[in-house]
Amino acid sequence: MKLPELRIGNLVAKVPIIQGGMAIRLSTARLAAAVANEGGIGLIAASGMPFDELRYEIKLARKLSPTGIIGINAMVAASEFAGLVRTAIEEGIDLVVAGAGFSRDMFGMGKESGTPIVPIVSSGKLARISESLGAAAVIVEGSEAGGHLGTNRSSREIVPEVLKAVKNIPVIGAGGVLDGKDIVEMLKLGANGVQMGSRFAASEECNASDELKKMYLCAKAPEDVVLIESPVGLPGQAIRNKFAASILDGTVPPPTECDRCLKHCSHKFCLIKALERAQQGDVETGLVFSGNNMRKVDEILPVKEIFRRLLAETSQID
């Protein structure tokens, strides 16, 4: 299959692949720029970043990929969500992807600046509402995805539903997309493109520690990935480790201090600090978000090689 271009507003990606925005600090400028340079859309994970750090990452991504498409991903559940979106827009970001919740206000910010707003949705109803509010596209994320989930249904089931619900905006399939076969499957369902997180988490340019990347490669059995309850009030998909096990059995220690980083938090544990620990290499007491198809990944590759293989795989499928 010859892959089509992906058009979102006035943006045209030569390869219809969006790199998932993985927090905390897994998806930074180096990864986003590498994806953009291959013709895809690179996302900087803004959640958990101070505004000055986000500005720096956006400027660095622009320097590394002067002509590529660079966006941000931000959690609506984050207390600083609106500030992160405004900061990115001020820096001239190409598009804003928003998940882990839904915000009507972001569409107004996008309309005022001309910045495409792309919400992550998990139903036809929310996709239709998003389009009516001004969404430039929607990313349809199902139960296969890593991190926070808004549904227990497969994206393969939801994509056709969303296609019937919207009229004039692109639909991007996400969740469990790891190889060329998965990409073609999504496109044959009618999706205009795909979002891929796990495959790029296991890339050389990902800002994860070597210990975290090695852990991705160890997730080989279905039972290695579990659903935990996140403090934001949504289930989250993660690799089973000591920390995830403590969440599941109710023995996870509550935080001793709170930075009020989330709009609403159960305080069962500190999400941001748990993700930071994993990013920095503590894969036992850190939270390791992962899609349930991570077992397909068996080596850490540079982004250029990932794209080469994906394009080669898709070209061999009718």
From TrEMBL:
Alphabetized InterPro entries for the sequence: Aldolase_TIM (IPR013785), NMO (IPR004136)
Its Gene Ontology molecular function terms? Answer: nitronate monooxygenase activity
Q: Does the keyword Oxidoreductase apply?
A: yes
Q: Which UniProt keywords apply?
A: Flavoprotein, FMN, Monooxygenase, Oxidoreductase
Query: Is DNA-binding given among the entry's keywords?
Result: no
UniProt function note: Nitronate monooxygenase that uses molecular oxygen to catalyze the oxidative denitrification of alkyl nitronates. Acts on propionate 3-nitronate (P3N), the presumed physiological substrate. Probably functions in the detoxification of P3N, a metabolic poison produced by plants and fungi as a defense mechanism.
Name it.
Answer: Probable nitronate monooxygenase
UniProt organism field: Veillonella seminalis
Q: Read off the lineage from the record.
A: Bacteria, Bacillati, Bacillota, Negativicutes, Veillonellales
